[in-house]
Amino acid sequence: MQPSQNRATRTFMDFDSVNHALDGICGLYERKIRNINPMVRNLTYDISDLYNFIDGMTDISALVYDDSLHAFLPSVDKTEAVSAPEEAGAQ
What SUPFAM superfamilies does the database record attribute to this sequence (predicted)? Predict the structure, then answer.
């Protein structure tokens, strides 16, 4: 991840599973809001707050290890259909 335009803010993290990585992202956000609100005992946020935190980063990427290829690959949501944009004028 890279939270700002400054390349020195680029950080790499390693997790044992995708679920642990997602928990890690939530933890990053929780630490940020605790730093902003140190006197608040019970912090609450909703998914849109978390999405705004992620969207505010310059870059964030996730790679998942593929045992069969012995390589890290981008995580792909197989439930989303990928289609090519329609050509102009095509019906």
Answer: ERH-like
* E strand or H helix that includes residue 55: helix 47-55
In the numeric block, which tokens belong to residue 5? 């335009």
- 8 Å CB contact between 74 and 62: yes
Tokens (6 digits) for 13 = 């993290």
CB 13 within 8 A of CB 28: no
Cβ-contact 64, 70 below 8 angstroms = no
Entry pTM: 0.71
Contact 67, 88 (CB under 8 A): no
Dist. CA 24–CA 30, nearest whole Å: 10
